[in-house]
TrEMBL record:
Family from the record: Belongs to the DeoC/FbaB aldolase family. DeoC type 1 subfamily.
Pathway the protein takes part in: Carbohydrate degradation; 2-deoxy-D-ribose 1-phosphate degradation; D-glyceraldehyde 3-phosphate and acetaldehyde from 2-deoxy-alpha-D-ribose 1-phosphate: step 2/2
Protein function: Catalyzes a reversible aldol reaction between acetaldehyde and D-glyceraldehyde 3-phosphate to generate 2-deoxy-D-ribose 5-phosphate.
UniProt key word Cytoplasm: yes
Active site location: 90 (proton donor/acceptor), 154 (schiff-base intermediate with acetaldehyde), 183 (proton donor/acceptor)
Protein name as it appears in the record: Deoxyribose-phosphate aldolase
Record's subcellular location: Cytoplasm
Catalytic activity from the UniProt record: 2-deoxy-D-ribose 5-phosphate = D-glyceraldehyde 3-phosphate + acetaldehyde
Top EC group: lyase
GO MF term set: deoxyribose-phosphate aldolase activity
GO cellular component, one term: cytoplasm
Gene name for this UniProt entry: deoC
Originating organism: Arthrobacter jiangjiafuii
EC number in record: 4.1.2.4
Keyword annotations from UniProtKB, A to Z: Cytoplasm, Lyase, Schiff base
Length: 219
């Protein structure tokens, strides 16, 4: 099990994903010993069955990709995902609230997901969508995630203007300190991309190009 492979959440979140593609994703994750597969909620139970008996975890997304679901819906979606076999959930903040400075609402939204996951050993990652936030807003969103009890902060959905940047990862790491997880997601396609994110403070990377990253690292 390589150190690099354990940094990667092997990801397929396209709305066009098919059952066969999910099965392939899981098999690739098993073959390459990735940390998790990250799939949309509708595929959690299938991915869980396919990965059963292997070390590969199942990650899914909550309030994805806009973050504009109500807090109650995000909490229910979390409970449902866990019942279907999710080991980790990546929830999207309400970006509109963040832009408006409604930080108590942002924190309460995150906390509801954390509380929904509390009875299970499920990691909660908080997607900030940093491409839509200023540096100051990224830092404040990270602080609110910490206050709400999340396990990770994450840069991006991969469905907005752009994905992870070194600058955003660095801000997030500086804000949350050494103990909380930081996940860089979106646009990480090469060994050099991954190394830059890790150097900036990422402890996990979401990527659909995990196999290519590992192949490039081995050269």
């Amino acid at each position: 099990m390589s150190q690099t492979s354990q940094l990667i959440d092997h990801t397929l979140l396209a709305p066009t994903a098919t059952a066969g593609q999910i099965d392939t994703l899981v098999q690739e994750a098993v073959d390459h010993q990735f940390k998790t597969v990250c799939v949309n909620p509708t595929w959690v139970s299938r991915a869980h069955r396919a990965a059963e008996g292997t070390p590969v975890g199942i990650c899914t997304v909550i309030g994805f990709p806009l973050g504009a679901s109500t807090t109650a819906v995000k909490a229910f979606e979390t409970t449902d995902a866990i019942a279907n076999g999710a080991d980790e959930v990546d929830m999207v903040i309400n970006v509109g609230w963040a832009l408006a400075g409604a930080w108590d609402d942002v924190e309460a939204d995150i906390r509801a997901v954390v509380e929904a996951a509390a009875e299970s050993p499920v990691l909660v990652k908080v997607i900030l969508e940093t491409c839509l936030l200023t540096a100051e807003q990224t830092a404040e969103a990270s602080r609110r995630a910490v206050a709400a009890g999340a396990d990770f902060v994450k840069t991006s959905t991969g469905f907005s203007k752009h994905g992870a940047t070194v600058e955003a990862v660095r801000i997030m790491r500086e804000t949350v300190g050494p103990d909380l997880g930081v996940k860089a997601s979106g646009g990480v396609r090469t060994p050099e991309d991954l190394a830059a994110m890790v150097d900036a403070g990422a402890s996990r990377v979401g990527a659909s190009a995990g196999a290519a990253i590992l192949a490039g690292s081995a050269q």
